[in-house]
What we know:
The complex is a heterodimer of chains A (205) and B (275).
Chain A: E1 10-15, E2 20-25, E3 28-30, E4 33-36, E5 42-46, E6 49-52, H1 57-78, H2 84-96, E7 108-112, E8 119-124, E9 130-133, E10 136-140, H3 143-153, H4 160-175, E11 185-190, E12 195-200
Antiparallel strand pairs in A: 1-2, 1-10, 2-11, 3-4, 5-6, 6-7, 7-8, 8-9, 11-12
Chain B: H1 2-7, H2 17-20, H3 28-35, H4 48-51, E1 72-77, E2 80-85, E3 89-91, E4 94-97, E5 103-107, E6 110-113, H5 118-139, H6 145-157, E7 167-174, E8 177-184, E9 189-191, E10 194-197, H7 201-211, H8 218-235, E11 242-249, E12 252-260, H9 261-274
Antiparallel strand pairs in B: 1-2, 1-10, 2-11, 3-4, 5-6, 6-7, 7-8, 8-9, 11-12
Helix pairs in contact in B: 5-6, 7-8
Amino acid sequence: MSILEYNGAAIIAMKGRDCVAIASDRRFGIQAQTVSTNFQKIFEMGPRLYIGLPGLATDVQTVHQRLQFRLNLYELRENRRIKPKTFLSMVSNLLYERRFGPYFVEPVIAGLDPKTFEPFIASMDLIGCPMVTDDFVVSGTCSEQMYGMCESVWEPNMDPQELFESISQALLNAVDRDAVSGWGGIVHIIEKDQVTTTELKGRMD
Amino acid sequence: MALADVCGLKTNQLKNSFLSDFGGSSTHLLDDALTSTTNFTVPYGIDPVESLKEFTNPKSDVKIHFDHGTTTLAFKFQHGVIVAVDSRATAGPSIESQTVKKVIEINPYLLGTMAGGAADCAYWERVLARQCRIYELRNKERISVAAASKLLANIVYNYKGMGLSMGTMICGWDKRGPGLYYVDSDGERMSNNIYSVGSGSVYAYGVLDSGYRYDLSVEEAIDLGRRSIYHATHRDAYSGGVVNLYHMKESGWEFISQTDVFDLHYQYKAEKEKK
């Protein structure tokens, strides 16, 4: 079994009108066995900046911790919040440093610019190649299933309610076709003045 | 064969050319089972075990991967046998189906479960159904569960080493009462009160063992079977879908219910919160 499939995960981020959404499943499993159904894979890196980390669970936690360390130093030196695009480069740099012994995570970033509140989503492979898109990004063991779902439900300029509905349906139906991800879901809708977090009621098998 | 003898039919013409290379056959009953497989085409003069090794060797490029991702269980109790199965089929991490029928209805008083290769289970249990019917016609009485399971075990034993993958439980009710046998493609055949087969069996056993008593009522037994499969689907990634539940009674089997584990999860959660 591939290392990226050892724990199993599913993350989606979508762009809407003046908002972004990021969603993940909640399973922590070791191959076939499900150990926990409330494992955190999306981390808040700023008031309107979130990163989703699918892949090997130990690297999910280590990358988050090392990234937090670098981000703290950045904010102390610059005395301001980081822009999503700059954060993308920071993550890319962290991953490429380990080019010949990589972290087994393929991050997804979603956020709003701290000054202009412009929506931003991006994803990366495990050695830090960045990809910025205007619609949606997916990452995880069921990425093919998620691509299919996103292509069907995404449309441009969705408001926060429509975006929530689309991203939730995309995630739940994709993980229902993957044996190693699922067991619940969590969605963050990031708008200019608030972040709404909702837990999804999904299949627990 | 009685009718064949009366008619003067020469049975050696029907001998299966597939196995004639092994030289000499065994008992009459085995012959019978063997001739039912004359439809397998194999080139002459080769040793099937050797040439089929490539399909079972993990290091080979052409290994046929059977997914044992499943949870099936069956247990005997005072009112018969409860058979409960999940319904998921996976190919690697991808879920191919959530609606697979893993209980095979051999005849109105015999059930078989499916674990391992679906085609292997479905095919050989259908061959078993044919053999059971022939037994019934010849002996004017139903075949016992012990005999039926032995027929199946002996049939697959001939293919041992050739890559069949089958882990089945044969359940029925005969003169000796409720019957439950575990038969697999390694040639294993055992009888006991409780069995669970598949990747999720470890979770099902936990729940089954803590709730099992021989003197359960029918409702309690049905609930136990359903609950055990649910817990297995929750923890095992390769089991899931719906729980198909059958009850084997003296008068034959009865299909009890098909319940989605999604509903079961929230139902059990609500029950826990009420306490």
